[in-house]
Design goal:
heterodimer; A: five-stranded antiparallel sheet; 55% strand; B: mainly beta; four-stranded antiparallel sheet; 51% strand
Amino acid sequence: QKEVEQNSGPLSVPEGAIASLNCTYSDRGSQSFFWYRQYSGKSPELIMFIYSNGDKEDGRFTAQLNKASQYVSLLIRDSQPSDSATYLCAVLSGGYNKLIFGAGTRLAVHP
Amino acid sequence: NAGVTQTPKFQVLKTGQSMTLQCAQDMNHNSMYWYRQDPGMGLRLIYYSASEGTTDKGEVPNGYNVSRLNKREFSLRLESAAPSQTSVYFCASSEPRQLEGLFFGSGTQLSVL
């Protein structure tokens, strides 16, 4: 089992819809959770981080964390074509001082 | 503010050649990292440096060496390049414990023929 798993996609959504991206992790001791966006040929850029169970909102983005079920999700409201990218989930495992990344989910927002 | 700067952006090597990837950050971060990214495998940690003067192996350290030259600079060296090292390499930096995540450089596309 991979430490951080994501559906590779592509996830295709129409413009204006809500895109829902999911991530599961294996280490129950994980403390911090991050979402990165990566455009093709570019470096990852941090969108959000979340530490506590529940929801965290930032503009059109909402991160959701459920430690009991070991999943973290990212919702993108009012999706735009410019949101088309690969979204990487990263987890800071409890016993290590480094982030473990999932392989990413490719999101395609079509007009 | 440049953030995290990597050089070169592109490099082609022949099997057995050596090279050094350079990375510098101007965010006064203590921790620096080298990742490689391969299709379908996400980002994998090669080496990291929690603070100046320390380095530790990550998930895939074989075939690489690193040097934390000072607080700003962290280099990655391939002593004898192999085709399996064809990848995109990213340098990153963060505050200790990565509480606010990593900040990445623009990447180096390396091809080993």
